[in-house]
Amino acid sequence: MKKVRKLSDMSPGESGVVENMPEKSGFTLRMQEMGLLPGTVIRFVRSGPLGDPMEIELRGYFLSMRRCEASMVMVAVG
Amino acid sequence: MQAAVQPREAPAAGARSPVYAVVGNPNCGKTTLFNALTGLRQKVGNYPGVTVEKKEGTCFSQHGNPIRVIDLPGTYSLSARSVDEAIVQEVLLGLRPDTARPDRVICIIDASNLERNLFLATQVIELGLPMILVLNMMDVAEKRGLKINAKKLERLLGVTVVPCQAHKGEGLIELRLAMSRRDLSVPTWRCSVPELFSTARGEVQECLEIDSERPEPQDCAEAALLLGDGITHAAPGGRPINPEALHLARKWQQKLDGESPGWRSELVAARYARIGEMCRVVVRRTHPDRPSITERIDGVMLHPLWGWAILGSVMCCLFFSIFSLAEYPMSWIERGTAIAGNWIGSVMPPGALSDLIIDGVLAGVGGVIIFLPQIMMLFFFIGLLEATGYMSRAAFILDRLMGKVGLQGKSFIPLLSSYACAVPGIMATRTIESPKDRLATIMVAPFMTCSARLPVFLLMIAALVPTGEASALQKSGLLLLLYSLGTGAAFCFAWVFKSTLLRGESQGHLMELPPYRMPSLKSVLMEMMQRVKIFLRRAGTIILGISILLWFLMSYPKVEEGSATDQLSQSIAGRMGQAIEPIMKPLGFDWKIDIGVLASFAAREVFVSTMAIIYNVEGADPDSSGRLVSVLRNQKRDDGRPVFTPLTCISLMVFYVFALQCMSTVAVVRRETNSWRWPIFQLVYMTVLAYTASLVVYQTGRFLGYG
């Protein structure tokens, strides 16, 4: 069963497929240019020692982003 | 859509050798490759009007012909949402009059991270310049089980592909051979675009065509960038953007926004889709994906407990080396300057000229090179941290902490380094990509209590606390208080700036955590030497000039007879000190202290030696300030009250905590922000703050009956 939830609500080690992201935002475009777009398979690797930011893996590389921004990305997990 | 594979004849390079531009993602080994190609034949400057560094070098082809190479800042895309990207775009399109228009492009991509790297590469391909695609880090890719068929990639994209391992020097000969080829093909690969966008681009392009010299794809690319908000204004001094085209682009933007709101994302998605198709053909997995070495190392490096321990030790090392280790070469430089001064004094007849050379020029030169040990050590460390990949881990761990005041993880090292000296600290801010965060860090870095404040604090504390029992504890307590006051101010003002002056829409904090790599020592050393050269040329000249000016102010007009004390009090600086006494009196400073405050603009510790001269203390060197302290304690004002009451001492220390009493910092901020606006603003706000804080301390103290 696939469940859609916020990227920031995933647990470490979980993988999923990006479902949607906010439209018309400069930051969304930046994420997309880095390869994070609807349909991309991502894995939440770990949170920082203080809980924020978080590290994700996509397209064979690691990316760090802050939770408040990750909460705008919806991911289909499972 | 079919990728065309028709190599076209490149525009004849003619008599002059072609100019190459080097582009690539951050962390793809671009700097290492550029350094390997050009060696020490590099020129580093600034693009006018912005803080982006401009790097150019000369490389020799296999046949020994010189080739000019422009190293462009590392970016992930060609859109112009950051200054770096705008520069890359403008240079590649030949829109910057200050930079030679590149004839050809070398695009470096990290083979182990092919998809994301190809995003920029395919954007560059569409600019229609003959291009060499360098597939760097082939070894890393193979270790990760990725076999890349370079020949297939070459056919699909229609560009020359050179596999390479820049850090080992492998593939460089092939690259040089490719660079001197005359028939480098112009890639014709294009990403398909939605029809509406294609129409819009075509119309804007029609409107743009004014430059018949330029190949057609460049007009097409410029039109696409205009539509995507890429270019909004002309580069300084460059060809103005056709207002008609701009107007048309804005009109089309509205239309596109209305008819398909997600058109910008669609363009990105279409490109990644094409790249995905290509990678499926070109890349073969030799063994299944498994946790990479990097991920396993990060399990420790980013561990909630070990991560902090490792970060702590790394920072201790860094801080120790610039704070303590650098002391040795710094004292050699001081001694060397003194010896040179004595020698000049012994061979030159005494007089104004020898004074100028010894106390003006030589002291000024000494004042400049004294910074080199710290700058070299800090940048060697930073180079290592960046080349290994640990820098972004440190930023990752600290991001939350620094985020509370609106800064980011990468602001930490510059601020930490500023405890030793703000000059290398401010130079270290160039690792921060976001211009606003970088500026905020620069603006507050001088609040961190640097080592030059220490002699002043130690002198004042000695004058304040009577020697006796428990005074050691009291002294260190006071010192700690002063350090926290400075640090607190830094964070407060970082927050203030980030929520007022330097606010603006957050660009977000997307940071790549690159794989761990063995650093190339040669490249690290070259980067370090570059910082040294930049400091000497850009900041050093200003520091030297101001030193000579300060020397002049303190030694003229000449007094016929009299001691050094008379000379100083009669000098221009002395008179200035007396002139500002009414302003400084509410802080508890008399004109003698004012002279010290003015003189310490050369370097804060100069305050101590100036006090020694002004109070006529023979042989007072900062290390054995015992005599000076007792002299200071016995100073009386005109009305018989002592000058250095505890309240005056505290007021003076508070002033030194906040004031930007350092011309070297001003000079280096000028160089790093590429304008006089920011250093002047910084000087003013910090001085106003220092004045206000001292005023409040002194007047409150007076009101409560102290002093």
Note the total helix count of chain B.
Answer: 31
Radius of gyration of chain A: 11 Å
Major beta sheet, strand line-up of chain B: 2-3-4-1-5-6-8
- What's the helical proportion of residues of chain B? 55-70%
- Largest beta sheet: strand ordering of chain A: 1-6-2-3-4-5
Largest β sheet strand count, sense and barrel closure of chain A:
6 strands, antiparallel
Beta percentage of chain B is 5-15%
Would you count the extended β strands of chain B for me?
10
Shape of chain B: elongated
Distance between the termini of chain A: 7 Å
**Amount of beta strand of chain A:** 35-45%
The interface involving the most residues is between: A-B, 34 and 44 residues
Distance between the termini of chain B: 85 Å
Fraction of helical residues of chain A:
10-25%
Order of helices and strands of chain A: EEHEEEHE
Mean pLDDT, all residues of chain B: 85
Number of DSSP helical runs of chain A: 2
What is the total tally of β strands of chain A?
6
Q: For the residues shown, what is the average pLDDT of chain A?
A: 91
The low-pLDDT segments of chain B are: 1-15
Oligomerization category of the chains in this entry: heterodimer
Care to describe what's here?
The complex is a heterodimer of chains A (78) and B (707). By secondary structure, chain A is an alpha+beta fold. Chain A is globular and about 30 Å long. Helix content of chain A is 15%, strand content 40%. With 707 residues, chain B is an alpha/beta fold. A 7-stranded mixed beta sheet of chain B has the order 2-3-4-1-5-6-8, with helices on both faces. A two-stranded antiparallel ribbon of chain B has the order 7-9. In chain B, helix 13 runs antiparallel to helix 14. The longest helix of chain B has 35 residues. In chain B, 46% of the residues are buried. The chains are: A alpha+beta (78), B alpha/beta (707). The interface between A and B is large, with 34 and 44 residues.
